[in-house]
Amino acid sequence: MNSQLRLIGDVHGKHDKYLYLLEENEAPYTLQVGDFGFHYNTFDEHDIKENHCFIGGNHDNYDLIDDCPNHLGDFGVWSVPDMGDVFYIRGGWSIDKAFRSPGVSWWPDEELSQDKCEEALELYKEVKPKFVVSHECPLDIVQFVTNPQFAKDMGHDSGIIMTKTNRILLRMREFHAPKMHVFGHYHKHLDIVANEVRYVCLPELGTLDLPKNFINAL
Fold this sequence. Notes:
22% of the residues lie in helices and 21% in strands. It is α/β, with parallel strands linked by helices.
């Protein structure tokens, strides 16, 4: 299949493998779903054009990320030629932040502020998108991609942890259900239909290739 848009899962600093995923398919547009890593010089060093984009996750450097032109930003609509509109929203919560170093491997801006979440929701209500890409997933979808014991082993009382990000994604879906929602964060492959939405979770460095006009045809 000749892909118009390739979606790429978490990279976690494995930039050589990311570059291979750009080259092997030759998709004219790619979108990486967050957790690219803590440095972005790969984009300059390899002259990666701005049609190869990414959003921020919880393993990203929020002191540097906005200086990279390939970063789409906090939230918005990315119009992909011969494909359609992608509504995107960045951010994720680090379950292991107690074991990470502020300004080195963890940033308090890893999730949007509540005010920014509300702004994103208002745009979502206006756009009513068919296709959504985020780093996390809605709160009620977490059960399908996580082992509750993992959270408890990390010292949390609940196996399903509410975050600003998964709550705002849930509120978005409750207002308007998109046709499809692609995310990462959980390092697990998932492809299910729930609440009339097709949810796809990409594992680390996993890919999803979409042909021309896929979103337009949803």
